[in-house]
């Protein structure tokens, strides 16, 4: 399968230009232990780590690179905290396009090496992803480069790259089908991790589309979860403010280090319209949830991929969601992406080398 089974619903690309690596159609898994332990019997996990380059951003990569092919553009220039870069690098390789990526200073080595393995030219930009002024300056330079006719600047957000973002909306189309086939009732809440906010907006717009096509009668509440150290939109959304705000980023959760607004104002509008709110979690709560997903559910994710569930558990503990609600948490990326977080998870675990004699004992 691929996102192109939704070809009529996303930014149109003629058939010969559609690139796919088999992205999408990811599983919706019923939580076996974490949900019941939290008193949430209807907790489901949409596991995006099985995508070809290991995260939900592959939906973006497939749509964005296909759109470039259709427009005759040959040079993909992207910014990334890691996963957008891996996705556009993979799809550029498949399509034979040149790919250059400016990454945030703190991007995990695993993500950088993955981009380079696909043949992309990768540059770490000092201060990018941490300091909002430096990040805005980097975006301005890259936007100017993106004005050359053969180039398309790819940033996984609606303010920069609408065609690619329509590929991400396929998450909601799949959830609409999976809800009908697998769930007891329609979905009440979808918890999404948020960095620049594009994912939250894509999920909200995807459900809007399902409502307008009369496939479902109402949208779930789209809930935005951010680490406390990158609170550009979660508090604004929760407290009734109209706009997101830039911050100095202090979180260590890779993928969610986006100090500037990007799609933040859109998130505040669109999540609020669905009845969703904003949720903040500590980095420690994210790492603990990452560990629990692996040991209690068999799901190996990077920290960003555990953030939605961390937010959901905090909301349940604070009585902010009904216990019997039907809840989906997006698990957005693979554990193989961020080795340092796995080292942290396994700090007290040993893997001794033993002899065959020891083995018999
Ligand atoms: C694994 C993962 N989850 C969530 C996000 C957040 O997505 P967005 O920046 O669209 O809010 C990212 C962004 O890079 C990511 O890599």
Commentary on this structure:
The protein has 361 residues and is of the alpha/beta class. The chain is built from 14 helices and 10 strands. It has 2 domains: 3-55 and 165-345, Rossmann fold, CATH 3.40.50.1100; 57-159, Rossmann fold, CATH 3.40.50.1100. The chain has a 6-stranded mixed sheet with strand order 1-2-10-7-8-9, sandwiched between helices. Strand 4, helix 4 (109-117) and strand 5 (121-125) form a beta-alpha-beta unit. Bound molecules: pyridoxal-5'-phosphate. Pyridoxal-5'-phosphate is lined by residues 55, 81, 83-84, 156, 193-199, 255-256, 258, 302, 304-305, 332-333.
Low-confidence stretches: none
> How many helical elements?
14
Strand order of the largest sheet: 1-2-10-7-8-9
Number of domains: 2
Biggest sheet character: 6 strands, mixed
Question: How confident is the prediction overall: mean pLDDT?
Answer: 96
Integer-rounded radius of gyration: 20 Å
- Distinct ligands: pyridoxal-5'-phosphate
Class from secondary-structure proportions:
alpha/beta
Quaternary arrangement of the chains shown?
single chain
Number of strands: 10
CATH architecture classification of the largest domain: 3-Layer(aba) Sandwich
Cα end-to-end separation: 48 Å
Strand composition percent = 5-15%
Shape: globular
The CATH topology of the largest domain corresponds to Rossmann fold
Q: Report helical residue fraction.
A: 40-55%
- Strand and helix order: EHEHEHEHEHEHHEHEHHEHHEHH
Under CATH at level 1, the class of the largest domain stands as Alpha Beta
């Amino acid at each position: 399968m691929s996102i192109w089974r939704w070809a009529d619903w996303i930014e149109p690309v003629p058939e010969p230009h559609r690139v796919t690596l088999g992205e999408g159609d990811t599983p919706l898994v019923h939580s076996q232990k974490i949900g019941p332990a939290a008193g949430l019997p209807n907790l489901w996990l949409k596991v995006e780590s099985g995508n070809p380059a290991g995260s939900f951003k592959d939906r973006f990569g497939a749509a964005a690179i296909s759109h470039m092919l259709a427009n005759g553009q040959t040079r993909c220039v992207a910014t990334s905290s890691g996963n957008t870069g891996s996705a556009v690098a993979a799809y550029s390789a498949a399509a034979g396009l040149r790919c250059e990526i400016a990454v945030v200073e703190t991007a995990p080595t695993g993500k950088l090496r993955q981009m380079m393995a696909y043949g992309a030219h990768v540059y770490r930009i000092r201060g990018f992803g941490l300091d909002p002024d430096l990040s805005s300056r980097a975006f301005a330079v890259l936007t100017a480069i993106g004005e050359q006719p053969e180039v398309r600047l790819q940033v996984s957000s609606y303010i920069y790259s609408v065609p690619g973002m329509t590929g991400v909306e396929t998450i909601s189309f799949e959830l609409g089908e999976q809800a009908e086939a697998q769930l007891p009732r329609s979905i009440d809440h979808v918890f999404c991790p948020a960095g620049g906010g594009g994912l939250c907006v894509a999920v909200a717009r995807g459900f809007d589309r399902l409502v307008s096509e009369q496939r479902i009668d109402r949208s779930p509440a789209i809930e935005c979860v951010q680490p406390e150290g990158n609170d550009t939109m979660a508090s604004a959304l929760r407290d009734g403010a109209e706009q997101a705000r830039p911050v100095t980023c202090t979180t260590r959760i890779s993928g969610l280090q986006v100090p500037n607004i990007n799609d933040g104002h859109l998130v505040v509008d669109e999540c609020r319209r669905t009845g969703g709110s904003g949720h903040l979690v500590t980095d420690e709560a994210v790492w603990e949830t990452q560990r629990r997903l692996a040991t209690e559910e068999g799901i190996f994710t990077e920290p960003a991929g555990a953030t939605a569930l961390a937010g959901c558990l905090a909301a349940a503990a604070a009585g902010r969601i009904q216990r019997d609600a039907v809840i989906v948490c997006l698990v957005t990326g693979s554990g193989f992406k961020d080795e340092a977080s796995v080292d942290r998870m396994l700090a007290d675990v040993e893997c001794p080398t033993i002899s065959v004699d020891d083995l018999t004992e």
